[in-house]
């Protein structure tokens, strides 16, 4: 095909980075991965041998200087996001960056300010659930008035328990369960409620299994309530201790009905009837649940960067998600409501 | 209360007979169990001590002569049904009799003829599913036109496997799986399709586990198709080898939609999410599934016998169920369609 | 039967009172309704003509003096509960009383104190959900360790919207949505978590449809979080604005799994497949959902009063439910956590 | 990437042909569509403008002579399949061909014979359901013994009703509902039961809405039973008159449990609770249900043709599906069992 392609540099090739790389290299028709960047040589080898990405950089600035590069895909530690985005923008590159934008509100605002200086560049934070077919359908139905005026979102991100507690090593830098997990739910709630302004949050949590989290002011199960200025509300749950799998569930209550997305985290269409009853297996992790959405997300970023469509989500949405997530974390730690 | 009560004699106090007796004695306000009849002295003792039924008879004719008796409830072996019904009618008693009416078509017709001579007496064969709230709701919805014109019923009666094979001792007298189990589905199909006239049946079966049934010309899994004269159809399955519980499922396909009754044989409203997935437990047997319907059935019989309502089902319905069940059995044994 | 019966006086014959009366009169074998009490003559007439309860009293003290009376069933306005229970106890009667015990904590404690003086008398507050077969099953499974250690209950009572807003006339005396509706969920959470001690509650709410509730400090949708001293938590939702029906849903999260009771408020076992998709109808109100539980509850009260069993729930449970409900109400009105 | 690619010619660019072309051109990494063949110039234009397939042929033989062509993808009328496959094989090309292989058993055998002369060439008939993740999972579970020994498959292909009756124009050439729709179910049953040998079939049908089909000996609703030599059985339903959407459902009953694939044809993970009850929307057509499977199928064909894997299904499987489908059609038309 002679249509233009977006020349992308993938930055960060951990587990999720590899999946993004595969999508961009093989399944997004107008994207081409021209270079990879990672401090880990084995990851660059993987990119070369598996996806034919010949050029690998250990250094991010070197990647930005790659000839003909149009865009970067940042799948890096959150603490690097703000600086890497700003550097890319200054180098004239479109930027996709995994969520959350940052754990620091000032950094979020700095990124917003820099992006405002480059209106021709696409910047997208990967709130992947917005690209899931079911969430998209729900949002469309709400926009069409199917459930009247939405006034309450209840949303949860519940991970399957990892008895090894491997996630504990991210505890010092994850920002806590609300910024790590609930940030998705916060973004969904804002999106599905029509971007209301937050007024007050309250949160609490407990450590049901991984008591070691307490040392980091973190919990393995958290609850939070957000009240918005227009009277709408959101209720969140985040957990790392599910026995049955990863369960992302979002309900939107409206004056004329309710939509639920994900009320049974079924793995597929198989139903088993045996001595355990009638049952279905569950999605083991977020990637099993959102694999298709990651592809659609990459496609939409590519199309937006190529000027073929506008994005529905903004950098400010990412800032708001961090702002609310930080307030929830504070509310839990101080056992008091936090007002905005 | 001063309203009249129906004085009932319960005949047969096996497991199902005891349940009928409890319903009549304790939960049907206008029924009173004044006597019991059983050849087993222990069963009469149970009736006396548990339900306060003071009078017990070993002999059926003696029961019929019990002073003031209004009605009998026959929960006896199928081979006795026809004679017992006829004797009760001749004694001027209302009759409830468990399904099937008989395994012999001539006997069915004899009972119909006798009943016609006693139009003031209520005779009811216990097609209990007609009294289940869900089946009743489905029938009402069809009558209201919710699914347009119904043209196909698919119905199954699938029992949980009993590894002990205890049911094998009924094999010589049960009439086979179609008369024992499918007779309910046949009755439902006729009811829900508006009593169409059968034209042709075909059936087949296999012994998946209980190969000993072969000696009786019986199977532990059977399939049958019935074509009716008006173009409507029915497809039946009967099984004795389910791992998960008792599953009665009936679907009615209409030109404007489909109704399903029982698509998951859930035991209750509890859902378990654990290492087995998301699951619900199942009804273990027909009584767990239809306990409420047995009570409604007894109530409706009582009300009909007291002249407060008319019955929706007739003796002829029971004859038709036997007629079709016999044809299905013949079709399976001869591996050919049987026409009516 | 010669076994002893409990001679009951039914007090209050509104809609729910009538249902209790029918259960006691017709379906609880060992109960006998010997008298009724109501200030409304038509209600006493109904009791006489429908249930044959010949004796009716306008005056509660007169009822308590009814010869041979063993017990009272109080289905009266909440504001009368405490005094009526105390009077009955002093008259030597067993007492069943509808929930909530009282909206006033001091009154709850007074009732507890009086009851302690009559240990031979049964006093039961009608937390009907404990008698529902599904909740009972869930509680048994937890006790057996099926889900490990339970650490979080999420429970909701959501009523179908009544566009007429008829419930508004109860707003001045209902105590608010948390005491009217969530009191059930509070009791369930305590029961299913093993009676933890409450530490702190937070609550918030909104008026999505019935803005007139604001005048009473009430809301039509409320959210609350309870933290217990042992680290366990509860999250509640109450609503009066569901479009699809009455939905009572309770989830219990444990370290080894989760139980959900009522995740789809299906009316029955009928599933409809038509232009609206695949669907089931819903229970319209709490009585449709809990009709069986009301009967089991009446049976258990009767058996306990007759000395045949002990009760699993205590007056103190009812006091605790009021205590927590009051704190939730206060937290919402003052927008701050309330500590115990 | 330097890995070899399969140079494919797409033949037939109707609706399904276009979807195959998009998959091959954009989403199968190792496939390249180098030429298209269609008698319709507008279809070749579409291939050029949308997918950049520069070379288009009106003539199939010309396509086969395209330089460097490795494989053909036949999405053509069934009546052409046999000759086109044979021509491709003689030209040394790998062949993918849509189902059914042929409506003529002799043609099936001719194709099998020709393929046997070219063992180095991959020939695959598109029984797409084998490549669906859920069916694949079910098959794996059966192979692992999860449900014991499978003895009965019940499977259905039910299309949403098209009130326009557009499908009627295919009636003269479709081979009837069993060869057009049930051929998938037949293939699934053989696969999931371990390729049993058919012994006898019976079938019947009715025209619930599209009575015009009668003129072609066809029906809009069909039922069929297949008995296999090893005692296992299959029961099929095919329909063109569903109100709610396309529903493909397959159940496998084993001595230790049952698997169901597709028991609710849910469109996605959205659940709506409103005045219609609790509901989900449904897949409108087979492509909405099996879009992912079509991609996996194309990937597996490509990998097989490139020598990277072997196929799990054979040409003989396709012959067997036609053989059984023809017998079912005959059984229905002659109202008698057809033995093999």
TrEMBL record, chains A, B, C, D:
Superkingdom, natural source: Bacteria
GFO/IDH/MocA-like oxidoreductase domain sequence ranges: 136-259
A Gene Ontology biological process term: NADPH regeneration
GO molecular function terms attached to this record: nucleotide binding; oxidoreductase activity
Protein's organism: Janthinobacterium violaceinigrum
Domain annotation Gfo/Idh/MocA-like oxidoreductase N-terminal: ranges: 6-126
Record-given protein name: Oxidoreductase
Recorded family membership: Belongs to the Gfo/Idh/MocA family.
Alphabetical UniProt keywords: Oxidoreductase
Pfam families: GFO_IDH_MocA (PF01408), GFO_IDH_MocA_C3 (PF22725)
Record's GO cellular component terms: cytoplasm
